[in-house]
Amino acid sequence: MGGYVALELYRRAPELFRALALCATKATPDTEEAKATREAFAVNAVAKGLGWVAEEFTPKLLRPHADPAVHAKVRDLIRSGTAEGVAAAQRGMARRTDSVPTLARIVCPTAVIFGEEDQLIPFAEAQRMGQTVKGARMMRIPGAGHLVNLENAPAFNTALSTFFAALQP
Questions:
Q1: What is the three-class DSSP state of 28?
Q2: DSSP state at residue 108
Q3: How far is it between the farthest Cα atoms of the chain?
Q4: Quick one: residue 36, left, alpha or beta (phi over 0 = left, psi -120 to 50 = alpha)?
Q5: Domain edges within the chain
Q6: Residue 23, H or E segment
């Protein structure tokens, strides 16, 4: 959800940004169908609990055939939250503003980082962002789904550090 927050903050206060990394995110708003799916997930999260959320959502966050240790870590992270928090997050994401118009206004150096096996954000979404933000740098993380920083931390960290190191002081 960090990308959604970053895009909203850029929309409101672009002068705060020297650079921007959009990681495993998208700019398009939810469709009515996606909003309904999020609402149903929110209701189920509260009714069925975090165990259900962890089992239902973890496979979607990770690449197919994810490392079992990463799978277990993500399940544990989900279970450490609250069902009400999961529901609120789903509802908040459903209400987010369309950030596609914001992309064309971004003038700072921008990296679009995406997992090559992301099941939640299709490559076309990342590609659209990379093509819309003038001069954006597309950075594909191999062997990673939506949680690129957990599934391929070395490649993700290298991508970020390389991007930020190249910025002029």
A1: coil
A2: S
A3: 51
A4: alpha
A5: 1-29+98-169, 30-95
A6: strand 20-23
What one-character DSSP code corresponds to residue 152? S
Strands (E), 32-158: 110-115, 137-141
Query: Concatenated DSSP letters for 137-168?
Result: EEEEETT--S-HHHHSHHHHHHHHHHHHHTS-
1-29+98-169 to CATH, choices 3.40.50.1820, 3.40.50.40, 2.60.40.1930, 3.40.50.1970: 3.40.50.1820
- Between vectors from CA 112 to CA 108 and to CA 117, what angle results, nearest 5°? 175
pLDDT tens series, the chain, 169 aa: 899 999 999 999 999 999 999 999 999 999 999 999 999 999 999 999 999 999 999 999 999 999 999 999 999 999 999 999 999 999 999 999 999 999 999 999 999 999 999 999 989 999 999 999 999 999 999 999 999 999 999 999 999 999 999 997 7
